[in-house]
Amino acid sequence: MVNKIIFYFFLFGLMLSLFSCDKKVCCANPPETPIDTFSEGLLIGNEGNFQWGNASLSFVNFNLNKSVLIKDVFKQQNQKNLGDVLQSMYLYNDKIFLVVNNSGKIEIINKSDFKSAGNISGFKSPRYILPIYNTKAYVSDLYMNGVYVVDLIQKEIKNSIKIQGWTEEMLFYENKLFVCNKESKYLYIINTNTDQLQDSIEVGYGSASICIDAENKIWISCIGKDNTYQGRIVRLNPNSKEILKSFTFAMNNPPGKILFNSSDAKIYFQHKDIFRMEMKDETLPANPFISAANKNIYSFYCTSNKTYISDAKDFVQASEISIYSNATGLKDTSFYTGTNSSSFLQIP
Question: What are the C-alpha distances in Å from 115 to residues 59, 80, 118?
């Protein structure tokens, strides 16, 4: 009799598990399980929607044999919402800086536990932050016509450097800050010792994304303008200020984000699909490394052996993150995060 009762309890439990979790749905996303450590994984920034206040962070932990996804980890760790439009993230030493565009602030969290370590406010519409020392960082902005100088110790804006137009991604090289500008033909150079605008280089209209390769040459992606300026990618010698290469795109069909993957020494860039090329290449690649197919690619990121693609869908539903092998270009797996996933940080 006792054995029969145990059997029925077992059968009842089995039926509950079958009805409560569809196998296909459960396996499509890693489980949202709290974990004790954030020491190794990928932090994903989800912009949310403009004026909806639904920006969020997702974290994929790779310490476990099976990856664990935590959605909205900022809210989980801090018991508050992140804000309105998470534009970008930057890891510097033991702190992660979260640039929350429409909230006009930068949230600072600890790398170890993602808990708040303060914030910096007073920006008009911040885009990117670039710390260069423990005490100092620069912040680009959509509306302020320049770059902010930030005191990281006091967590406040110290000064600003005037540059006409929408300042975007930045790069620090040999005491110089190279600043992209989406409303100009020029890449701007700031002397970081004096915080003075030092020079400008004509690279193409609408410089937006920037990186530096293994030979210390700078690559800039320019979006162009309407029917006036074509988009282009240029390779620049930052010392001589000479443009070494220039790749032009069709009118109204510009390139997007560009980055350098030090693991394979290749340049990756978005042009609807994801392309990659060697530093020495004299022509653009004819075929994509990863085809967009039916995806609405919003952003991408490379680690040593993987490429992460964010599919923003209709910009309202959750983004799908697909992971591809850098060795083969084939898809490994995918999972869903928050709305409009656009930035990635590898931890550590």
Answer: 13, 11, 9
